[in-house]
Amino acid sequence: MEQEKEAYILGTEQAELHRLGVQHQVWASEARNAWQYAEFSQGQTILDLGCGPGFCTRDLAYIVGETGKVIGVDLSANYIEFLKKTAELHQLHNVQPLHTSFDDMDLSHVNLDGVYDRWALAWIPNPQEIIQKIADAMLPGAVFVAHEYYDWSTFQTQPIMPNLKKGIAAALRSFKEQAGDIDVGRFLPSMFEKAGLDVIRTRPMAKLATPDDLTWHWPKSFLNIYLPKLTQYLTPEEVDLALEDLEELEYQSGATIFCPQMIEVIAVKS
To answer: How wide is the angle at C-alpha 142 spanned by C-alphas 46 and 38, nearest 5°?
Structure first.
């Protein structure tokens, strides 16, 4: 899989594809919990906003069944091609991959029963506008499920590893300087209400990782891929020292990583 420019802040190369697979395994139970609460079911049309390579799209396709449809939208041509191949491999004819930006996404002829967003709204400068566009395409009773960061600055380790802490701070700085708001989740309840949606559930989603569980590999894989890309913020030596800290942390007695604080917001269209 070739690297793309401007498609995704962490890139779309093979290593990132694998990282997203690990990430999906860590967060899949949270997604299923939300989909069950939202009553996503057979025959529905669901929008998977910012679907990436389509791990959630595939899961949703089995939920809505042959009479339903899942529209997977992403800016990455590589990821949309991967989704097409996945749908073909699993003979999921109810998957509609859509390669487009959210601004150019055409929902004028779509009637949505549900929407799922995981880390899609944090990277764009106009989330309110996009939410409104989606809300306009939702049928009465349709449900919008969003999983976004609430406070990325909570990302920390115990024990504190000074070089790794510096690397994490550099990552946050890079996010703060991009077009969107990495902590968009804290604003979603008011954004949904402004778009005419009624918020029916909000809940925090926290992950505390230990070296012997799968969750550890989510922040670990992120740091291993992203820190070397931060040439504007870190020297190669600082990156090496941060990753050495990360490796050492894994063998520290009682080590933990508190992952960035997430929030779930679920809203329904009256």
So the answer is: 80
pTM of the full structure: 0.94
Count the alpha carbons within 13 Å of 82 in the hemisphere toward its beta carbon.
25
Sorted by where each starts, the structural domains of the chain and their CATH numbers stand as 14-269 (3.40.50.150)
- State pLDDT tens for residues 179-238: 999 999 999 999 999 999 999 999 999 999 999 999 999 999 999 999 999 999 999 999
